[in-house]
């Protein structure tokens, strides 16, 4: 399943979102296959979710006028409170690509055949099935964003604001990921004090206490 701790699953999910699918019609009279156009929009929507943490309806209803000054301005939210979502470089490039491809044909960012996309449940579930990912839904992408944000050093307060949680207690469900990440990071120092070749280096800030003719040395 897609979680904040398995980025490989995200890769496979994105790959399946962008792969064209051949479907055979159910009626025998129509023997030729048809191509479903998931690749035109599904990957873009999933990539937006992973990089913004926005809810599905917030993404599908997103208009170009809401994107400005490096932020996404959300007025209609689940909590009924307005919020702003910062746009990272990946998301900015995605928006530029979409805008170049569709031009000014619609006020909505994510469209199919010129119309706003109202749901992606069928296409998304099909992509998950092809990728062999179980027990996941679109909201899982929001958890993926939050998990990676915390594991990469993001603060819980900032996460609360970006996700639009009214209560910090809701955001605290990701607190353990920060602690686990720190525990894994400090393991890099395992063996440092037991090594026979451990060295202590004098830094520039330490030189002030040395005699004038002394040189910084490494003590073995």
Residue windows where pLDDT falls under 50 for at least 5 positions: 1-8, 28-35
- Domain tally: 2
Output the helix-strand order. Answer: HEEHHEEEHEEHHHHHEE
Task: Please write the CATH class name of the largest domain.
Answer: Mainly Alpha
Assembly annotation: single chain
As a percent range, the share of helical residues equals 40-55%
Distance between the termini: 49 Å
- Approximate shape: globular
Rg from Cα: 24 Å
What does this molecule look like?
The chain is of the alpha+beta class. It has 2 domains: 7-180, hpI Integrase, Chain A (Orthogonal Bundle); 195-219, no CATH class. Helices cover 40% and strands 11% of the residues. The chain is built from 9 helices and 9 strands. The protein has helices spanning 7-17, 42-52, 56-60, 89-102, 121-131, 139-151, 156-163, 168-171, 175-186, and strands spanning 21-23, 34-36, 67-68, 71-74, 83-86, 111-112, 115-116, 200-201, 218-219. The strands form 4 sheets. The chain has a 3-stranded antiparallel β-sheet with strand order 3-4-5. α1 (7-17) runs antiparallel to α2, α2 packs antiparallel against α4 (89-102) and α2 packs across α6 (139-151). The longest helix is centred in the middle third of the chain and has 14 residues, at 89-102. The radius of gyration is 24 Å and the shape is globular. It starts with 6 loop residues before the first helix and ends with a strand. The relative contact order is 0.14.
